[in-house]
Amino acid sequence: MKTLIEKALLLKGTTLFGDLDLEMILPISDKLGPIQCKPGRPIFSAGEEATHVYLIAEGGVELGGETILGPGQLFGEEAILSGEKRSYGATATEPSLLLALSKANLFATLEECPAFAIGLLKEYAAKVQKRF
What we know:
This protein is an alpha+beta fold. The protein has 5 helices and 8 strands; from the N terminus they run ααββββββαββαα. The longest helix is centred in the C-terminal third of the chain and has 18 residues.
């Protein structure tokens, strides 16, 4: 289990949160819930309602049977931002620790922290560009 400071430092080391001050990151870190995943465990499936976004603290996650993500990477935000159901599934590829942010906390954070909102939009736009 990660402490508040460990979660904040993990966030600070990502591209999404790297430009934010620790004073902004600490309240976000406090909203993250840990999820331990065993290899092969589905995190969510295609067609499910989106309830959380996830940051990989340790381990790896496969998205849609193709893309492998590792520590410091965020996933699952597309369905929350679009309001659609999940278009792909996510499965742990190794023992993993995920930090989950609920939909309600994501939207509250977007309202409270415009710098985070801009960073999330940039990251989302980069993902979209890679697909085309």
